[in-house]
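Sample entry (113 residues):
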Amino acid sequence: MNDATHEIQREFEQAQKARTNGNEGQARVCARRAAGIAIRDYLLRNGIRPPSRSAHDLLNLIKESAPLPPDLKRVADHLTLRVTEEVKLPIEADLIAESKALCEWLMNQEDKF
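Predicted structure, serialized as tokens:
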């Protein structure tokens, strides 16, 4: 396991703890951070210096520029959605599960960006 894999795993553990404690907002933040770590690792493996440390910026970059399958582009969209005034997502989605799928795909890709 490389450092990125450990960091991603740690974020998902924190996300699950936050959800268990009723803090869905923090769970979303952790899921987004995990995706950002996976994207940075993916870019670095492809010889690309990440243009930002922001998970939000990296999600926008990857959904516009990377060869993501359509379902994972939707995941990137979900992870960048703004919450409503009630601090809820405007859609029904499990961002932890979706982020895990995106991270797994990115960590297993050998294709060029």
